[in-house]
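Retro notes, structure queue

What went well: the backlog is down to a handful. What didn't: a couple of records were mislabeled last round, so from now on we paste the full input next to the output in the thread. Example, using MotA/TolQ/ExbB proton channel family protein from Geofilum rubicundum JCM 15548:
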Amino acid sequence: MKKLFAFLAVFGMLNFAGASAIFAQQDETTTTDTEVVVEETAEAEEVEIVESTSEVDEEALAAEEQGIHKQIKSKFIEGGAVFMSFVLLALIFGLAICIERIIYLNLSTTNTKKLLQNIEEALQEGGVEAAKEVCRNTRGPVASIFYQGLDRYDEGIEVIEKSVISYGSVQMGLLEKGLTWISLFIAIAPMLGFMGTVIGMIDAFDQIQAMGDISASAVAGGIKVALITTVSGLIVAIILQVFYNYIVSKIDGIVNTMEDASISLLDILVKYNMKK
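Corresponding output:
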């Protein structure tokens, strides 16, 4: 009997331990599933929040860009179609000339060291005609000046020097072509703006005279519209002035390169003449 009771006791303890283990596993599984569901729900909410935030940012950015465009358009209309159109034309024509000059100056830039080396090698191998051919095949004012100097090689070094200086002045004039028009647009844009402002102020005082009394709202509106043309003219002048200064500095760099390269060419021709 004692053995039977001991067996039953051991069997009961084993069953209890097994049931406890099963319940524990079930609890862990349930807890794990609950945690996974919570994490997935949190991730889904975060994704939705990020997507909604990005959509809101994109809509705000698009609204802001559209708002800037509308603001510029409304200010242009408020400033008066006549004077604002003249200011806009000054900006368009000025930028057109600036872009043309920048392209021309970039194409006029030459690697003078390589050109001088090619001319010196051509003089040693094929003489003056070969050097002239190198200049003909090279783009830019420096090559044109070199060609004019080499074309008068038979007349002596002094004639070559005078020819290089004279043709250098011609090329400098070509480089500076169009700068006077850019200066005109830089000067005329603020003048048009000031003219629009003065005429707007006259209209504001006419309104005051017609009303017989000073109304702050009416006068402020007229003055605000009048000042828009001045601001527009100043903005146009600033933009064109930046391009003008860049073009002038570019021309100065090319002219300095031309003068330095011309001196080097004369030295090469003197050495070549001495070798002959």
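Agreed that this is the format going forward. Reviewer comment attached to the example: The mean pLDDT is 74.
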